[in-house]
Design a protein that fits this description.
The complex is a heterodimer.
Chain A (H helix, E strand, L loop, with lengths): L2 E11 L4 E12 L4 E6 L5 H8 L7 E6 L2 E2 L5 H11 E4 L11 H12 L4 H10 L15 H14 L4 E5 L7 H17 L3 E5 L3 H5 L3 E6 L2 E2 L1
Helix pairs in contact in A: 3-5, 4-5, 5-6
Chain B lengths: L1 H37 L6 E4 L5 E2 H9 L4 E11 L2 E8 L18 H4 L5 E4 L4 H7 L2 E4 L7 E5 H8 L4 E2 L1 E4 L10 H4 L3 E4 L6 H49 L4 H34 L3 H9 L7 H31 L9 H32 L3 H33 L3 H52 L4 E4 L5 H9 L3 E14 L2 E8 L3 H6 L2 E4 L3 H5 L4 E5 H7 L6 E3 L3 E8 L8 E5 H7 L7 E6 L4 H10 L8 E3 H54 L4 H43 L9 H27 L3 H8 L4
Parallel strand pairs in B: 4-7, 5-6, 13-18, 15-17
Antiparallel strand pairs in B: 1-9, 1-10, 2-8, 3-4, 3-9, 5-7, 11-19, 11-20, 12-13, 12-19, 14-17, 15-18, 16-17
Helix pairs in contact in B: 1-7, 1-8, 1-9, 1-10, 1-20, 7-10, 7-13, 7-20, 8-10, 11-12, 11-13, 12-13, 12-21, 13-20, 13-21, 13-22, 20-22, 20-23, 21-22
The chains are: A alpha/beta, B alpha+beta.
The complex binds adenosine-5'-triphosphate (ATP) and magnesium ion.
Magnesium ion (MG) binds next to helix 1 of chain A.
């Protein structure tokens, strides 16, 4: 099992009130499987994704990625697991603006100590980025930037890809191309994919679909 | 927060400016005092010829003819083996008394009191008490001296209306040669020129300190500019919203300008007080000067005080306005709709950076050309300005290129990102970095200049003032008595004789020297022929001073029309003297000027005998104490001056560096908020916050280190310009430049430390930032 989240609770405290965002969420994912996470705005999809990525810790419950405890309280430990096991793709692409495309793609692979020049080149070709490797992110279109983000996430050969509305900032046509690429390549590399999306069409292209409602899986 | 940045930046810059001003004026005041002390008794005088006398009638006659002179009489009182020298002056015409006593504060009504009143040195109160006179202790007065009204002393001494001497005031315009015709029984004594060299030397020092005052102004300006620019960057979204809501550009600018002016005034006032505090704590003596600057005790100082406040406020407001021009231009061109990525902003700055770099290159080119051509003071200062501003403008581009290179040669991901990210931060930090560059360069410059000054000057004094005691006789006849009385204690009597001549069309002096080891061993020769001292004894050879050599482009071996036609066998350094000078052998001098008899002597005395020799001179020859100058005292005095200057420059160093450090900190803090979008992805990809914080610290150290590496040579260039260009233009002599690697190391260490301290807080904040703040970046800036 690549992902195993059990009974996850997470709430936020603001000045005077407490919102319980996740109230006992459990989900599991096998290698190479893809899962679409849906739900209304504010239902806690991003929150869950961030917990799985080890960017934050749940109040209760345990998350394991590739049998490693991702909900570990130690910051350094989580960062280490994150770079080794997880690839993240965000809605706003969030590339590193000061680095060229090739360095952007290779960044996490280098961090994880799994840099493979051939693999990176192959990914770039697959994503149709070969002509843009020496440019900076700002010179690329949204669709191109998101393909760079996908290549970056895959370059480190992670066990799990987490994508938070990866097509949310793209027009429908571009979104479709990007999504197809993402699905193809995760299948080829036998990488598990957890993707948040608002689009039922997009969701249906994945192996499984789940909806978050009132802090639980509906 | 951003308000605090702006206010603090402005206040600190102003504090720096007024602090330097205070220190500068303090330095001036203390040099003035020292110079006055050294120069005491150095005014021209009119005395009676031997066997003649001078009376009040002579004084009145001269005054009527327009001579600006003031009478003095002297009387000695002995009591229990202690002698007090009573000096009678005419307070209405007397200049400031010896020992920098300010005549303005003289208690006039008491001074004229019938019962007698004296200003006394601390050790002579007993004698005056015995007279039953009123008195007041004047701490600056030379030991064993009292000053009183001329009438009271004449009465006390029962000497009728005879006078001892008339002091010629500095502003007297009458020709001394006329005295022969007006009053043949009187003679005119020229002040010995030797000692006011110190006063002139300090002029040079003032000039250099003023230059550094200007530099700190520049540092302050950069900081203010940076503060305003950052404040604007932070608020650009708000401005855009306001404009979109229909607020007119003019209204927005007017409002902002008003806001800025209010801040500038507040910060300026605060800064001036801060400057006062800093100066007062760093230098307790400054307090005295400052009282004159801040508190209106005397009507005359009100103007200084006003100018002081005005300059501080002017700095704050003027600096703010200059600094805000760029910001307002950007505001005017602010597009209503904007892509708004930070990278786009950096890209725009990249262009600015290249333009600035080109401009910097041009300025440096101008500086290079000027450095070989500059001959006037104005050119010297233009050179200085080109050098500094050029270097500052070139800094961002240089840093950018360096970092790009580092980025290219690094293969590992995190270091590569580190360099590239640092590079992208250069535009935002450039103002603070430029300020740091100027601050370090200024400090290196100050240290080098002051230390070179000190080394040169004390070394030169050691060479020039070798004789332990310098004596000025009242009459030439006393020379014989002196030689006889002191034959046992004094190892050599070195007569100092001079005559006025013309050299290169300018009034100059020629000195005669005896052949003595004192000169052979010590005289500061810059250039010399072989056997220079042997050859100097031949009448056709001469030494000239550096200023004459530089001005007339003369060197050893050249011939010159001086006292007669002579060959130059050597060039000596003669700091502090703006006029040409020549030295010839004593025999040649006696031949050329048979009428001039030596009145001044340098006496070589074993140190333990100095006190005894002075006593003999005072008691048996009746010389006034100020006719004897103790070499040790002059040296101690000049050393004291330099010690004080060291304290002052040390304070200046720390002040400028801490202000630069503060501006770095503020820039980093301001940038930190804008940088979260760049940092969040790095964190998400598996770098801990602690790591990011550490990198932040390293970044600031790396930047500061590069800036320091550039600043040290710049500082050296700066001091070279000051010592070798500005000084030559202003005073005609060049000061040798000494290098002090150790103090540069210390300065660099302090600069790095300042950078670390400046980065510590922002880095700490980053290391402790809450995850959800970083996560917000991914959820579209909630
Ligand atoms: N740092 C925080 N402090 C307080 N409340 C928060 C914080 N982060 C998220 N929340 C709240 O948690 C809830 C879930 O947020 P989350 O971003 O996970 O929703 P989402 O399902 O991803 O919504 P969207 O579809 O709009 O992206 C929201 O109500 C949000 O207001
Ligand atoms: Mg979301």
């Amino acid at each position: 099992m690549i992902l195993n989240a059990q009974d996850i609770h997470k709430g936020y405290e603001t000045a005077d009130l407490r919102t319980d965002v996740l109230r006992g969420v459990s989900l599991a994912l096998e290698a190479g499987q893809s899962l679409a996470l849906m739900g209304e705005s504010g239902s806690g999809k991003s929150t869950l994704l961030h917990l799985i990525a080890g960017l934050d810790v749940p109040d209760r419950g345990e998350i394991a990625v590739d049998s490693q405890v991702m909900s570990h309280p130690n910051d350094t430990k989580r960062a280490e697991l994150r770079r080794q096991l997880v690839g993240i793709i965000f809605q706003q692409f969030n590339l590193i603006p000061s680095l060229r495309i090739d360095s952007n793609i290779a960044f996490q692979a280098h961090l994880a100590g799994r840099y493979d020049a051939d693999w990176c080149a192959k990914l770039a070709t697959r994503m149709g980025l070969s002509a843009h490797l020496e440019k900076y992110p700002e010179a690329l279109s949204g669709g191109q930037q998101q393909r760079v983000a996908i290549a970056r996430a895959l370059a480190a050969k992670p066990a799990l890809i987490l994508a938070d509305e990866p097509t949310g900032n793209l027009d429908e046509e571009t979104a479709q191309t990007v999504l197809t690429l993402l699905l193809e390549i995760t299948r080829e590399t036998n990488t598990a994919l957890l993707m948040v999306t608002h689009s039922a069409t997009h969701a249906s292209a994945l192996d499984q679909q789940l909806t978050l409602r009132s802090g639980k899986i509906a | 927060m951003q308000l605090f940045t702006l206010l603090m930046g402005l206040a600190l810059a102003t504090a720096l400016w007024s602090g330097v001003q205070a220190i500068n004026s303090e330095a001036r005041a203390s040099y003035g005092a020292a110079a006055a002390q050294v120069a005491q008794g150095q005014s021209d005088q009119i005395v009676a010829r031997a066997d003649e006398s001078m009376s009040v009638a002579d004084y009145i006659a001269l005054r009527r003819l327009g001579w600006l002179v003031t009478p003095q009489i002297e009387h000695r009182l002995e009591m229990d083996g202690e002698t007090v020298r009573l000096l009678g002056i005419e307070p209405l015409t007397a200049p400031n008394l010896p020992g920098s006593f300010d005549m303005q504060t003289l208690p006039m009504d008491q001074f004229f009191s019938q019962s007698g009143f004296a200003l006394v040195s601390e050790d002579s109160t007993k004698v005056i008490e015995a007279l039953d006179w009123g008195f007041e202790i004047a701490p600056n007065l030379a030991a064993g001296t009292a000053i009183s009204d001329i009438g009271s002393i004449a009465m006390l001494a029962e000497r009728g209306d005879t006078l001892d001497r008339l002091i010629v005031l500095g502003n007297n315009a009458q020709d001394p040669a006329m005295l022969e015709d007006i009053a043949p029984h009187l003679k005119y004594l020229n002040a010995s020129s030797g000692n006011d060299d110190i006063a002139r030397l300090t002029d040079s020092f003032h000039l250099n300190l003023t230059a550094f005052g200007l530099l700190s102004f520049a540092v302050g300006l950069f900081i203010v500019y940076g503060a305003i620019g950052l404040a604007f960057e932070q608020r650009r979204t708000m401005f855009r919203t306001l404009r979109a809501l229909g607020v007119s550009l003019r209204l927005l600018i007017t409002l902002l300008l008003a806001e800025l002016l209010i801040f500038a005034t507040l910060a300026g006032l605060f800064g001036i007080m801060l400057g006062y505090l800093i100066a007062a704590t760093l230098l307790p003596d400054v307090a005295a000067t400052l009282r004159g600057l801040y508190g209106a005790e005397v009507a005359g100082t009100l103007q200084i005080r006003a100018s002081w406040w005005m300059s501080g406020l002017g700095m704050a407001i003027g600096g703010t306005l200059i600094a805000s021009i760029g910001t307002f231009l950007r505001l005017a061109r602010l597009p209503l709709m904007e892509a708004g990525t930070p990278q786009a902003w950096a890209q725009a700055s990249q262009k600015v950076m290249i333009y600035l770099g080109l401009l910097g290159c041009i300025l440096l080119g101008v500086a290079a050309v000027l450095s070989t051509l500059a001959s006037s003071l104005v050119q010297g200062f233009v050179l200085l300005g080109c050098l500094l501003i050029g270097a500052a403008f070139l800094l961002p581009l240089t840093l950018d290129r360096c970092l790009a290179l580092l980025e290219r040669i690094t293969k590992r991901a995190l270091p590569q990102w580190f360099w590239s990210d640092t590079r992208s931060q250069v535009p935002g930090l450039s103002m603070a970095l430029m300020a740091l560059l100027l601050a370090i360069a200024t400090n290196v410059g100050v240290s080098t200049m002051v230390s070179s000054f000190r080394l040169t000057f004390t070394g030169w004094l050691d060479q020039r003032l070798v004789s332990e005691l310098y004596v000025t006789l009242d009459t030439a006849e006393q020379a014989g008595d002196m030689r006889r009385l002191l034959a046992d204690d004094v190892t050599a009597f070195l007569p100092i004789v001079s005559a006025k001549i013309e050299l290169g069309g300018q009034p100059a002096e020629v000195y005669g020297v005896t052949d003595h080891s004192t000169y052979r061993d010590h005289w500061p020769l810059l250039e010399a022929a072989d056997n220079v001292w042997d050859r100097l004894q031949e009448p056709e050879n001469a030494l000239i001073n550096e200023q004459f050599a530089l001005r007339s482009e003369l060197a050893v071996g050249d011939r010159v029309e001086g006292a007669q036609r002579q060959t130059i066998v050597g060039v000596y350094s003669d700091y502090g003297n703006p006029a040409p000078q020549m030295i010839i052998g004593m025999e040649a001098f006696a031949m050329l000027y048979p009428n001039i008899e030596p009145m001044r002597f340098g006496l070589r005395v074993a140190p333990e005998n100095i006190a005894r020799v002075s006593k003999v001179l005072r008691k048996d020859l009746g010389l006034p104490p100020d006719a004897m100058v103790n070499q040790a005292r002059i040296k101690a005095l000049s050393l004291g001056i330099f010690e004080q200057t060291f304290t002052v420059t040390g304070a200046l160093n720390i002040l400028t560096l801490s202000v630069a450090g503060f501006s770095i900190m503020m820039s980093l803090l301001t940038l930190a908020q804008m940088r979260l979008p760049q940092l969040a992805p790095i964190w998400a990809l598996g770098v801990t916050r602690a790591q990011l914080g550490r990198l932040e610290l390293i970044r600031s150290v790396v930047l500061a280190a590069v800036v320091t590496c550039l600043a040290v040579p710049l500082g050296l260039a700066l001091s070279w310009v000051l010592l070798a260009v500005v000084n030559v233009a202003a005073f005609g002599w060049q000061l040798p430049m000494f290098l002090f690697p150790k103090s540069y190391l210390v300065l660099s260490a302090i600069a790095l430390l300042a950078a670390i301290i400046a980065a510590a807080w922002p880095a700490q904040r980053l290391a402790r930032i809450a995850p959800h703040q970083l996560l917000q970046v991914f959820s579209g800036g909630r």
